[in-house]
């Protein structure tokens, strides 16, 4: 048994090394013919010994049906981000944070904050994940929930092969935040053979991660990118550059687009580049995130009751599509408010399948001439909510 256990540990270390090269670095280090015997040997030893180590790669295939998801209280709050819809909003945010820094430096001339510098990152469009590692071992994974309490989905997250089950950092507890996604190429391949094709990558990822059958999650072949350390017992980093370095050193998959710049003008240049390449990516993004890089500055600026003052989400302009108006119905809300609803021929906008659009009120219907327009072509725009416009 001791010899078998040591052999299992050696196999796990080797297999996980190759999995990291393949799923995180996108640099395969073995062929399937070389990899499969290692994995099969591990499965055989686990069956013979009746022992399965918690960080074994065999635990990624999905296990028994879950009865439900237990609440999980995060060690550090997962904050929402304030939004900038355009250039003016972004500049207004920059003006606010620059004033806060200037005011602080005026009051603390002997210990001023450094000049502002920024990082521009992708805002992935999937399901937020919060992973907990205890002395290097993945012990919990949870949804964002309300930012304070989420749902534990560890069994499902373990099926994501780009999520490390064990990391080199073993100094206490650490929470790492990221996003679970489904690559567009994976969605296309899945739908090519699926009895029930999935509508879009966002819903496919979120639905899989909150499915009570981890085997379904495993079949979706999800991916995950990580971008933040929410809590750590003892780890301290001076800036975002060090944080990204830590994540990479500990085998987390980091966004391929993390740009560090020293001015708000350079931020805008990066935004323009990333907006232009948005539709070339193999995953959905719904915006970009701009953060101040210096951790001490973040601590000084602090938070509102909803958002960190040191970060902002730059939302893309509304996407539009043309479809056919099929019907107009009336929806009665819980308060008794009546809202007209347009049914349209299903159309994909930014990865979301849209079939229903709010019309706001009767005046809106009159203005858009929709009372007698069934069968007409209409423009629809997705901008936070979905609306119909002529």
Automatic annotation (TrEMBL):
Residues 3-390 form the NAD-dependent DNA ligase N-terminal domain. It comes from the Bacteria. SMART domains: LIGANc. It holds the Pfam family OB_DNA_ligase. One of its GO terms (biological process) is DNA replication. Its EC number is 6.5.1.2. Signal peptide: none annotated. Keywords: DNA damage, DNA repair, DNA replication, Ligase, NAD. It catalyses: NAD(+) + (deoxyribonucleotide)n-3'-hydroxyl + 5'-phospho-(deoxyribonucleotide)m = (deoxyribonucleotide)n+m + AMP + beta-nicotinamide D-nucleotide. NCBIfam families: PRK07956.1. This is DNA ligase (NAD(+)).
